[in-house]
C-alpha cells in the first residue's frame, strides 16, 4: 500500500492572464463601450461588473486543473453541476498490475497524524487492499473487487469550470464548514487563482485558520498534465 499527500496539478497555460482581456472585451459588448478597451484590461471596469452581480460575462473563460485526492473528496467535487470531469476509473484500473506497483494508493488523512487512530486507519486500508487482491485472485473483475476499496483511495480527476463556477466552488469549498480534506486542496488553489486573476477572486473568503503546513502541493505543469509516478 502506498500513502501519498493530495496534490493539485495546474497547466501553466491555464493561468494565462490574457483571459482577463478577453473577458473585458465580452463584457463591454453589453455596454457598447469597446472604444475604452486598452492593451491591458481595466481592473476598475471588471470590479464594477462583479460588484453589480453581472457574473455571466466571466463564463466565457474556463480553467482546467487536476485534483489528486481521495474518492470521498472527488464525490463532493462532481456535485458541482456546471463542469466537465474525467476521472480515474476503478472499473477499469486493475491495481494488481505492475503499472500500479501491484498495490493500492491512498491519500493520507492529515488530521490523524500523530494519533492512535492513525494505526486503525492504516490497518483498515491494508485489510481492504488484501481483500481486493484476494477477490481478483478468485476471478473477480476490477469492477467487482472495487466494492471493498476504501473511500481514501487515491483518484485523479481533471476538472473544468468556467470562471463563474470556480467562484462558486471556492465560496463553498474554502469555507470553515467544508470538509477538512476539501479545504486542504481548495484553499491553496484559491490563493493561486487570486495571484493570477485577482479581480475575480480577491473577494472570496476562506478559512484562514486552516494550517498552512497541511496545504496540498500545487504543481504547475508545462503542458497539460504530466503523468504522475505510479
Task: State the distance separating the first and last CA atoms.
Answer: 12 Å
Q: Strand order across the biggest sheet?
A: 4-6-3-2-7
* Tally of discrete structural domains: 1
What characteristic shape results from the CA principal axes?
A: elongated
What percentage of residues falls in helices of 4 or more residues? 25-40%
Low-confidence stretches: none
Number of helices: 8
Strand content: 15-25%
Return the CATH class: Alpha Beta
Number of strands: 7
* Succession of helices and strands: EEHHEHEEHHEHHHE
Which CATH-level-2 architecture?
2-Layer Sandwich
CATH topology: Gyrase A, domain 2
Major sheet description: 5 strands, mixed
Mean pLDDT equals 94
Radius of gyration: 21 Å
Instruction: Find the structural class using helix and strand composition.
Output: alpha/beta
